[in-house]
């Protein structure tokens, strides 16, 4: 403003008409820039105050969310604290552990390799492991896409940890070496359900990652960086727990909320050895962390990935549809028919790890993405209710508007908690 006043004052002393015109044009340009900047800032709604009553109703230490429409952030906000009992606020730009929402990233990595003809969706176990004859005969012809779709029959996490946890934590080696041991272990055990039957299994993603590692000669950690984080400019993305025991907390701390209390309890960190070995066993299905903004970049890549060349049309479509039938789980994401998502389907996944929970809902046909986070895991569904309430609020507000406008606000959408999948850390 001082610059504008200076220019205006000096304009009054100009006798040269050209000089006067130039200054007026300069003033107009500056005003236009200021106007555009204010419109851009104003078009992103801060919904922090709307999160407060939801957070308090469900006893969450912190809640945050983001909504993306047509590739631009239309709403975001955060409420509460990084750690119960501490005054450091949760920020909407904080890095968070997205848990099992990592699965779609691993499936997308596989899709990028399929597009490059490095492997195929039907690549079999026998093609990846020289010692496949030592595995259960049921698994020898199991395919990459079956593991990504939870249709291989491989054991679920509770079974794996009950049988093999003590051996897992004493394994030595790199992530890839221990992951290979995990894959061989579950493949030798035999199926928990018949192949083709749906069974949500984190270790199925460890097997899928091990197959990819065997084919490419690279570990999953470097491949996810090369094919997801880097091309999508997810500069905050990391692998592993985002918080430590520091006070005041520098990042959001995970919590547990027992059914008998209203006070969340900060979750202690696992030991470095356990974290290292468990990343080998569950990392491809749950260990990715990033900000909400970077997560939204990945999700939006599944809206515009064909036009940007990130994915082929065939792979892009495959990664957004159910593996079997018209609704249900696909490759790292679920697809459901919802009126607010028409003419396409609503895509959804949730995550739960280290006492941090997430969910995203999106409708590619309307180019709307909503992602929500709580730094708390509850035993009785309060976390899921909080996440879906926030997501429903923003979906109701933006799904029916085909532009970025906030006009014609609708009532919140009731999401019926289909986002809440079986929870395993």
From TrEMBL:
<feature type="transmembrane region" description="Helical">
    <location>
        <begin position="20"/>
        <end position="41"/>
    </location>
</feature>
<dbReference type="InterPro" id="IPR012338">
    <property type="entry name" value="Beta-lactam/transpept-like"/>
</dbReference>
<feature type="domain" description="Beta-lactamase-related">
    <location>
        <begin position="57"/>
        <end position="386"/>
    </location>
</feature>
<protein>
    <recommendedName>
        <fullName>Beta-lactamase-related domain-containing protein</fullName>
    </recommendedName>
</protein>
<dbReference type="Pfam" id="PF00144">
    <property type="entry name" value="Beta-lactamase"/>
</dbReference>
<dbReference type="InterPro" id="IPR001466">
    <property type="entry name" value="Beta-lactam-related"/>
</dbReference>
<keyword id="KW-0472">Membrane</keyword>
<dbReference type="InterPro" id="IPR050789">
    <property type="entry name" value="Diverse_Enzym_Activities"/>
</dbReference>
<keyword id="KW-0812">Transmembrane</keyword>
<keyword id="KW-1133">Transmembrane helix</keyword>
């Amino acid at each position: 403003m001082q610059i504008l006043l200076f220019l205006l004052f000096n304009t009054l002393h100009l006798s040269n008409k050209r000089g006067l015109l130039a200054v007026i044009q300069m003033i107009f340009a500056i005003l236009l820039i200021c106007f555009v900047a204010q419109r851009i800032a104003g078009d992103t709604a801060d919904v922090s105050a709307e999160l407060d009553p939801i957070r308090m109703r469900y006893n969450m230490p912190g809640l945050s969310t983001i909504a993306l429409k047509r590739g631009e952030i239309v709403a975001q906000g955060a409420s509460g604290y990084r750690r119960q009992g501490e005054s450091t606020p949760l920020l909407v730009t904080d890095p968070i552990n997205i848990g099992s929402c990592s699965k779609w990233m691993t499936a997308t990595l596989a899709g990028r390799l399929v597009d490059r003809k490095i492997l195929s969706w039907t690549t079999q176990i026998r093609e990846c492991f020289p010692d496949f004859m030592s595995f259960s005969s049921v698994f020898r012809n199991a395919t990459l896409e079956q593991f990504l779709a939870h249709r291989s029959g491989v054991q679920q996490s509770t079974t794996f940890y009950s049988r093999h946890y003590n051996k897992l934590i004493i394994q030595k080696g790199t992530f890839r070496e221990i992951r290979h041991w995990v894959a061989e272990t579950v493949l030798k055990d035999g199926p928990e359900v018949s192949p083709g039957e749906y069974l949500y299994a984190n270790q199925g993603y460890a097997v899928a990652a091990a197959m990819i590692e065997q084919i490419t000669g690279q570990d999953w950690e470097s491949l996810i960086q090369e094919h997801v984080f880097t091309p999508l400019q997810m500069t905050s993305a990391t692998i592993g727990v985002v918080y430590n025991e520091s006070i005041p907390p520098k990042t959001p701390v995970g919590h547990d909320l027992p059914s008998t209390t209203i006070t969340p309890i900060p979750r202690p960190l696992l030991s470095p050895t356990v974290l290292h070995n468990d990343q080998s066993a569950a990392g491809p299905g749950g260990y990715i962390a990033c900000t909400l903004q970077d997560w939204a970049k990945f999700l939006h890549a599944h809206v515009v990935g064909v036009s940007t060349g990130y994915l082929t049309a065939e792979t892009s479509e495959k990664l957004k549809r159910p593996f079997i039938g018209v609704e249900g789980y696909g490759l790292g994401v679920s697809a459901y028919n919802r009126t607010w998502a028409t003419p396409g389907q609503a895509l959804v996944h949730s995550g739960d790890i280290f006492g941090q929970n997430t969910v995203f809902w999106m409708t590619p046909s309307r180019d709307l993405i909503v992602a929500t986070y709580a730094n708390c895991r509850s035993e009785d569904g309060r976390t899921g209710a909080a996440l879906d309430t926030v997501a429903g609020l923003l979906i109701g507000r933006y799904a029916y508007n085909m532009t970025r406008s906030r006009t014609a606000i609708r009532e919140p959408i009731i999401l019926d908690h289909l986002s809440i999948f079986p929870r395993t850390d």
